[in-house]
């Protein structure tokens, strides 16, 4: 459905979608649960063909028992607006425009403060929100998060350079790099790859990706001093076998955020929320309720 917050669907545990005008940009937003409950903002990672539902839809009904779940397609991804020109990589433009659009989304939904759950790029955006509007974040969960001063891995470079060969076969090769156990795909890899390529090869999605990973701009990095100034309670979750962002990135964030706890999951890659959904849910709920 499309519309404004006044048209939010009736409360239940079904994930519903709508378009919300968030400041200057329209965001496709997926919600679940009672708006009267504490809010949790789920922020997905980057990559060709990514969207909020692909990251979070299977988890949101469980969280909706206690929380108002909000999962937007981040600006420049999925079915949200794709600015032209698109925001380029590096600091501060990469994170600022997207962070401020999420703050505008919370305003539009009438949410003063939320728990932030950021996967990969979503973790970097969460940290930026903590810098510019710290009072809008309650607790934060950084899962396979970027932001550490670590060179891109070979597997991450496959994601960055996907458009050199945007084929279903290349997408399938990319997807298996996100997990430790490729049996997770259970014969559905080709179908999932075709679905992702259909979205990834849209002109607006391609334009946004190439701008985000513009090689003229360095990756987003947070210094030790910048992290030390972020005082929020934080849970850093990282897969031990993460090939996209090595587990050293999780250690860096946990060691420098003054109120962070770290949980490293064995036999887990970059997609903890998918590959280890039950463990992720248990850890996240325990932390948020503590």
Strand and helix order: EEEHHEHEHEHHHHHEHEHH
Number of E strands? 8
What number is the mean pLDDT?
A: 92
Number of helices: 12
- Tell me the count of domains: 1
Under CATH, the topology can be stated as Rossmann fold
Low-confidence stretches: 1-11
Per CATH, the superfamily is Alpha/Beta hydrolase fold, catalytic domain
Just give the CATH class.
Answer: Alpha Beta
| CATH A-level architecture | 3-Layer(aba) Sandwich
Helix/strand-derived category reads alpha/beta
N- to C-terminal distance: 35 Å
Helix content: 25-40%
* Spatial strand arrangement across the major sheet: 1-2-4-3-5-6-7-8
Radius of gyration: 17 Å
Task: Describe this entry's structure for a reader.
This protein has 290 residues and is an alpha/beta fold. The protein has helices spanning 52-56, 60-63, 93-109, 121-132, 154-160, 168-175, 189-200, 203-212, 224-228, 247-256, 272-275, 277-289; strands at 16-22, 25-32, 39-43, 68-72, 114-119, 137-143, 234-239, 260-265. It has a single domain (5-289), classed as Rossmann fold (3-Layer(aba) Sandwich). Strand 1 and strand 2 (25-32) form a beta hairpin. Helix 3 (93-109) packs across helix 4 (121-132) and helix 6 crosses helix 7. The longest helix has 17 residues, at 93-109. The termini are far apart. The model is unreliable at 1-11 (pLDDT under 50).
Lay out the secondary structure.
Layout: E1 16-22, E2 25-32, E3 39-43, H1 52-56, H2 60-63, E4 68-72, H3 93-109, E5 114-119, H4 121-132, E6 137-143, H5 154-160, H6 168-175, H7 189-200, H8 203-212, H9 224-228, E7 234-239, H10 247-256, E8 260-265, H11 272-275, H12 277-289
